[in-house]
Known about the structure:
The protein is 30% helix and 18% strand. Helix 19 (558-566) links the parallel strand 22 and strand 23 (570-574). Its EC number is 4.2.1.3. InterPro entries: Acnase/IPM_dHydase_lsu_aba_1/3, Acoase/IPM_deHydtase_lsu_aba, Aconitase/3IPM_dehydase_swvl, Aconitase/IPM_isomerase, Aconitase_4Fe-4S_dom, Aconitase_put, AconitaseA/IPMdHydase_ssu_swvl.
Amino acid sequence: MNLAEKLISSHLTAGEMRPGEEIGLRVDQALIQDATGTMVMLELEALGLDRVRTEVAAQYVDHNLLQSDERNMADHLFLRSACRRYGIWYSPPGNGVSHPTHMQHFGVPGRTLAGADSHTCAAGSLGMLAIGVGGLEVAMAMAGQPLHVTMPRIWGIRLAGALPDWVSAKDVILELLRRHGVSGGVHKIIEYHGPGLGALSAMDRHVIANMGAELGATTSVFPSDARVLEFLDAQGRAGDYVELAADPDAGYDIGDEIDLSAVEPLIAGPGSPGNVLPVRQVVGEPVHQVVVGSSANPGLRDFAVVAEMLRGRQVHPQVSLEINPTSRQVLADLIKTGALTALIESGARIHQTGCLGCIGMGQAPAVGRNSLRTFPRNFPGRSGTHDDLVWLCSPETAAAAALTGTITDPRDLDLALPAIRQPRIASAVTTPLQRPLPIAEARQVTLVKADSIGSLPELDPLPDSLTLPVLLKVGDDVSTDEILPAGARALPYRSDIAALADFAFGQLDETYPRRARAAGPHTIVGGRNYGQGSSREHAAIVPRYLGLRVVIAKSFARIHWQNLANFGVLALEFTDEAGYDRIAQGDELRLDGLRKAVETGDEIDAGGVILRHRLSARQRAMVLAGGWIPEVRHADDR
Length: 638
C-alpha cells in the first residue's frame, strides 16, 4: 500500500477503496475557524448534541479579527460559549492561524482530521489524513458520524534533488500549479515520496500541502519521518511521533516527478493561483504592497528569511511591507531571534497574528497597483478591492520586491544567501488555549447569542416539478469567493444569513440578490470546476435561502458539490458539455419527475438539454429531504 491507502484503510467505516465510490472515514480530530464556526455551532445546537465525540475538536478565531462594529466580538463570545458547552478547545483572537497552530499543539501522524476550512489539508505535512469539508460535515463528524468522501485516485509525486539557492517550498507547489492548473488535483490525493523529501522540513511540507487545495485535491499526504520527529520534538511532543511511510513497492494511480534542483522562482499572476509563470518573465513590474504571512507560508523560516534579506536595509519608499505573524509561537520566536527588530527597523508594518489580508479582512490593495503576497489565493476581489492585482509568490520573491519596488528575481539581488538559524526548541506559548470543560460543568453553560447571531434557514423538500428561470450563467473556475465573498464588508454578517444574502455573487453580478428575491425558485448555470476554493458553506446556504434549487454545470469542485447537497440544492451536470451553449441567462427551464430521477439516477430532460447527477444514495436522501439536517430529523421521526 501507499501511505494514503494505509491511512484510509485504517479509518474506513463504509464503502470500498475503489476510485469514484463513496467511502466513510472515522474522524479523530476536528478543526473549525470563526468564518465557518458560527454555522457549525448552530448546527450542533440544531442536532441536539450533548458533547463532541472526536478525540480533539478545536475552534480557532483567526479570520474575523477587525472589530469595526459589535458583530465580530459577538460571534467570538458565542463561539467561546459553544466551545465550553460542547467540549471543544478554544483558541482566542490573536492566538494564531488555525492550520499552523493546530500542527503545533494537536498534529499527530496517522490521525484523521476533518476541518471546516479548505486548507485543512496542510496537516498532511505531518502524515495525517486531513480533509477540508463544509461546516455541516464537521458538525456531523463531531457528533460521531463518519466523514463521507468520494474515494480519490492516489497521485504519487516523486521528489528528487534539493532546492537551489533563493528557491523555497512555495515555488514547488507553484510548479505543480503551473503544470496542472487549479483543477488538476480534483478527485485525487497527492502523496509525496522520494529522496528529495529529506531536504524539506515539516513546515516546508506544510506550505506544499496547504496549497494542494488550490489544485482541487482531496488532500495531500507526506510520510512521517525524521523531519516530522524534529518538528514534534521542537514542540515538546516527541512522544506523539509515529513513523509512517508507503510500502517500498507501493504503486500509484498516477505518477509524476519534480526535480527540486530544477525549480526556479515562480509567481502566480492576478486572478488565479493557476496563472503561474517564472518570476524572470515579469521582472520590472512596479509593486506598491507586499504582504508576508498566511497559512500558505506560516513557518518561522518564512518570516526569518524576509528579516535577514532586509536586515540593515530599508523597504523601497513606494512599498508598504506588511508582516502578519501566523501564531503567538512564531511571533515569540521572531522576537527572541531578533528577526522582528530587523523587520521593524527596515520599515515593515507588523500586524496581529491571524489571516487578515488572506481572507480580505483588511490590507486591501489600491486599485490598479500590484500587491505581492505569500498567500494561497488571489481570486478576483478576494483581497477586498474589486479590481485588484494580487500576485502569489515565495517569501524570497516578496522580500526582493519590497527592497526594489518592482517584481524582482531574488537571484538577481546583490545579496549573500541569508543564513537562517531557528531555535531547536520552539517557544512554548500554550496559556491562551482554553481547555474543554468537564462534562458536568459544560452542561451548565448557556450559549451566548447576541441579536446578530441568526439561525439556520428552514429548508423544504425537493418538489417533483420545477419551472426555473436561469438567473445567472457563469464561466469556468468560478470560486466560492465569487459566489459569496469573504472580506471585511461581508464576513461580519456570517451569522445572519438574511443580511449576508445581500452580498451573494456581488463580484459577478450585484443585481443577483434583488433578482433572486423577486424570482423565488431559480437555477444557475456554470462551467467547469464550479465552486472552487473555500469550504465556506455560506456559498451554498445563502443562494439556497434566496431560492436556488438547482445548479447546472459542466463539473463541480469537490467541497462545494457536497455543500450543495448538504443544503438541498440539486447539482446537475451536462451529459454533453455542448448543452452549456444551448442555455442562456434569462431562459426558463422546466424540470419534471425530479424526485424519481434523483432516486434512480435517471437522466433529466431540460428542454432538450440532457442532465444527470452523481449523487450517492446518502446524498440523494439529503437533496430529497431539502438538506442533511431535515433528512436527519425525518429519520429520527421514523
